[in-house]
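Sharing a chain and its predicted structure for anyone who wants a worked example. Both blocks are below, sequence first, tokens second.
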Amino acid sequence: MSNPMIEFKHVKKVYPGGIVALQDMNLRVDKGEFIFVLGHSGAGKSTFLKLILHEETATEGQIMVNGYDLTKIKSRQIPYLRRSLGVVFQDFRLIPTMTAYENVAFAMRVTNIPERQIRSRVPYVLNLVGLRKKARSFPPEMSGGEQQRVALARALVHSPPIIIADEPTGNIDPELSVEIMELLTAINKVGITVVVVTHEQDLAAQFHKRTVTIDHGAVVSDVGGETAVAPSEVEVIR
């Protein structure tokens, strides 16, 4: 069996004051999987994400992400870990004074990518998410769905093997939610692992993917799913 893209082994997270956010959490996500992580507010979803991004560290247990052991990771390795994760946030986190092109390019510039590569890569990923004609538009001039597509383009720009979407449909209309999920599904079909963290059970039910439910900091249900890897098509994204 190949190494997992994400694995939690008996993970416990206790915050100051004795607040237990995760307790004995076990979860494995393999290459090419698409999973929904469901849970109500306070179930532990945010802590789960923060641990993957190494914004928090586990109190107990082991976390592996894309080959990095987060219980032993060195500080100099953390930027490389995070670069291997494309993260899409609920609130988009776009810079309002930058165009769609500039928002995506900025993600490359902060990692010292040569300008020639930026000029080639950014239009490509904007076209991939259907925003070629919006490259010069500023976030306030775009709809919520378009802004979320810019955020997705930004997440894809480094060709990460893992995309993590944190409530990606929380700030957009229901019909646009389906469009974003279909785009994530298309991305998954070329071999990229996709983890969607959400409280929207109805949305997850529409897509018939593996669904993991967290409650009181532990996995209480893990059902369905299939691995969708098409190696011959990976170049579409990469």
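Comments welcome. Residues 83 and 158 are 7 Å apart (CA to CA).
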